[in-house]
Amino acid sequence: MSILDLDIIKGYIRMCTDGWNQGWHERNGGNLTYRMRPEEVEQCRPYFKATPGQWVNMGVQADNLRGEFFISTGSGKYFRNVPLAPQDNICIVEINEAGDAWRIAWGLEKGGHPTSEFPSHFLNHSVRKEATGGACRVIYHAHPANLIAMTYILPLTAQDFTRALWKSATECPVVFPEGVGVCPWMVPGGADIAMATSELMKTYQAAIWAQHGLFASGPDFDITFGLAHTIEKSAEIYVKVLSMGGGIIRQTITDDDLRAIARDFGVTLNEKFLN
Fold it and tell me: Which of 40, 68, 117, 236 is flagged as catalytic?
């Protein structure tokens, strides 16, 4: 048996594969992190490096993530290569007791670091852990083309994107009833975009990065991937409708329809996005 036989590692690899198969991860685009449960850490511990890597300061800090372990894709690594050689393309990192540095405990055997956007992931894990009482464990960044295309034509506001997505696919208000956040274009990988995104994620499960992609969160791989998949499917419908109708939408889901969906499915919609 090896670490690759453990359910948590197999589940992580499957999500990387699913994202690649959707076409959301060109070249080394996108990244995925998972905050491990204590029992999962203990299952993996026999396979950790005899000598862990050096501590690397992140430039951000979170008290509620002190001593945690994360599975992460590697910086510059390709999602398409994760199932072929997981030990070279993903890693498990440990967070120090100050909550401001990581070191590699397993993986990236041919060298490298966790994703360059790890600071963004880290702060968003902190925010979502707090917002969900510890339930959120997955942060996923992908480059879905239709959603990115929408950032070129819609005003970059949560209201405009939420309404467009809610009204393009009936299940959307059920899957993300709070709406989606929107972050203007920023240079990826640094503390500034990490802070801006984490502010949005205090309210939303998902945030859109203009001209870049999607940041999604959830308690497990299925729910997080399903959230991203639902948002991108709705974006695809919206883009096709505008293309087919010359920019004219003749009928859509009304605000009262959205309220009816929320009532029948037992969810609470963010009323500030409704007329």
Answer: 117
